[in-house]
Amino acid sequence: MRIIQREETSMEKEIAGQHRGYFSLADIMYFAKKGCEAVAEDEVTQRFTSEELLSWNLLSRTNANFHRVSWQLTAVWVIGILIRYCLLVPFRNYSHGCCYRENRPQKGGICVANHTSPLDVLILASDGCYSLVGQVHGGLLGLIQKSCMQTSQHVLFERSEMKDRHLVRKRIREHIADKAKLPILIFPEGTCINNTSVMMFKKGSFEVGGIIHPVAIKYDPRFGDAFWNSTKYSMMTYSFNVLTSWAIVCNVWYLPPMVKEEEEDAVHFANRVKAVIAARGGMSVLPWDGGLKRKKVKESFKEEQQKKYCQLVTENGFMGNGNVY
Amino acid sequence: MGGKKPTGVETKEGITDMLFFFSSVSHSQITRLYSRFTSLDKGENGTLSREDFQRIPELAINPLGDRIINAFFPEGEDQVNFRGFMRTLAHFRPIEDNEKSKDQNGPEPLNSRSNKLHFAFRLYDLDKDDKISRDELLQVLRMMVGVNISDEQLGSIADRTIQEADQDGDCAISFAEFVKVLEKVDVEQKMSIRFLH
């Protein structure tokens, strides 16, 4: 549920609207308002926790603001628990409403998709074979990864290691050069996002020159929450949550292949593919880096803001003669 | 979710208390902002630290981010509770919301034009002596322009700004002078956030 309504406005309109070329004591108000708007509600941090549902799906884990609505609802919830834990778990299977199949990735190509959970891999892998590229994990997921390595050629790396990233790019290049090899599956966001929007696609996969097969994956939140919030839940807890949901219902769209154009740079290409996936899956597009889940935003973004402000309040390179009003 | 310290909002009395304290804020606005407060509270101890604010990317890239974060914290404190959080945000409620207020004869609401101006003034006035000195103005200017303007230029802008605003000749800008300078500015629009009901 939204907390504030942001106005469609910009620094240009708010600050330079009336007084381009001058500094005004009131300029501080633009930054103060923008700052407090971000405190009340921001576009980024909400993507790293589960989507808040408008109507409750009877799973207590999706009810962040629990307040007792009625005893009837509570009764239904209790029955729901009994069904989920006692009836469904023993007979567990996923259902996925799938699957628009004409554009399934071919050998030698790179399959890119938005990322919500390791389930994405299971779902795609149940419909085709891939070589995987991903972050190495410990624990239960680590064991699963190790056993996968036995059967196929996968590339595992440590995302914080710069050296690893270069190595990964090299391995990907080598892999797709060999047309007999399985298509590679990559999640360019680099981390799990909560399936309401698609965040920045890292350019690595888009500069190696292969054919990109975009795939959009959208989970239906009414039945269960597929998002793996790895900072909050371990793989064990997450698996348990998944198994005791109503179901995981998922739509997968295989989209027509795309290639980088002559004049296009990798970043532009990545954004193009991202837009296509988001549009198909019904998710919004964010320019922000999913890596902000774990690390601080770069200083250079602040510097951009400062530069922009400067340009608005200077004229011919000089700040105006301070006509305050 | 055991182990969390109560912040006084979980109970019905807590919410009633908030509603009284912030006249004409709706019940659902409080619960939504409370939900936001707890999602920022990574330490789960019922208060926010400066780090909790800095984790918001849009705030981290705001040139005045640190000053704005400071505005939430009471003097000398390192933690802010939910009441303090609401209190700061309350300055940005639109002024028209006050028409629905039941308490017409009470103290001036936090979101009055004067209090909005005061909020902006305090962003400049770091030492809280009710004056914006040349140094204080320079500091804020430097935060807003980054490295893109030389010291000399910035100095002359600060001088001119003070010259134009200063009426009592003390080479600083008092709150009254600040208000006078900005009398034609649409403070209500610039310092209001539309909180949804």
Automatic annotation (TrEMBL), chain A:
UniProt keyword Lipid biosynthesis present: yes
UniProt-listed GO biological process terms: phospholipid biosynthetic process; triglyceride biosynthetic process
InterPro entries found in the cross-reference section: LPCAT1-like, Plipid/glycerol_acylTrfase
Major subcellular site: endoplasmic reticulum
Pfam family, one: Acyltransferase
Pathway: Lipid metabolism; Phospholipid metabolism; CDP-diacylglycerol biosynthesis; CDP-diacylglycerol from sn-glycerol 3-phosphate: step 1/3; Glycerolipid metabolism; triacylglycerol biosynthesis
GO molecular function: glycerol-3-phosphate O-acyltransferase activity
This protein's UniProt keywords: Acyltransferase, Endoplasmic reticulum, Lipid biosynthesis, Lipid metabolism, Membrane, Phospholipid biosynthesis, Phospholipid metabolism, Transferase, Transmembrane, Transmembrane helix
Membrane-spanning ranges: 69-91
CDD domains xref list: LPLAT_LPCAT1-like
GO cellular component: endoplasmic reticulum membrane
Compartment list: Endoplasmic reticulum membrane
Membrane topology category: Multi-pass membrane protein
Residue ranges annotated for the Phospholipid/glycerol acyltransferase domain, each copy included: 109-220
Similarity field: Belongs to the 1-acyl-sn-glycerol-3-phosphate acyltransferase family.
Entries under PANTHER family matching the protein: GLYCEROL-3-PHOSPHATE ACYLTRANSFERASE 3, PHOSPHOLIPID ACYLTRANSFERASE
Protein name per the record: Phospholipid/glycerol acyltransferase domain-containing protein
Record organism: Phasianus colchicus
UniProtKB/TrEMBL annotation, chain B:
Keywords: Calcium, Cell membrane, Cytoplasm, Lipoprotein, Membrane, Metal-binding, Myristate, Nucleus, Phosphoprotein, Protein transport, Repeat, Transport
Transmembrane segments: none
Name of one Pfam family that matches: EF-hand_7
Boundaries of every EF-hand domain copy: 28-63, 112-147, 153-188
Primary subcellular site in the record, as a coarse category: membrane
GO biological process: protein transport
InterPro entries hit by this protein: Calcineurin_B_homologous (IPR051875), EF-hand-dom_pair (IPR011992), EF_Hand_1_Ca_BS (IPR018247), EF_hand_dom (IPR002048)
Domain of life: Eukaryota
GO molecular function annotation: calcium ion binding
Localization per Swiss-Prot or TrEMBL: Cell membrane; Cytoplasm; Nucleus
GO cellular component term, pick one: cytoplasm
Family membership: Belongs to the calcineurin regulatory subunit family. CHP subfamily.
Name of protein: Calcineurin like EF-hand protein 1
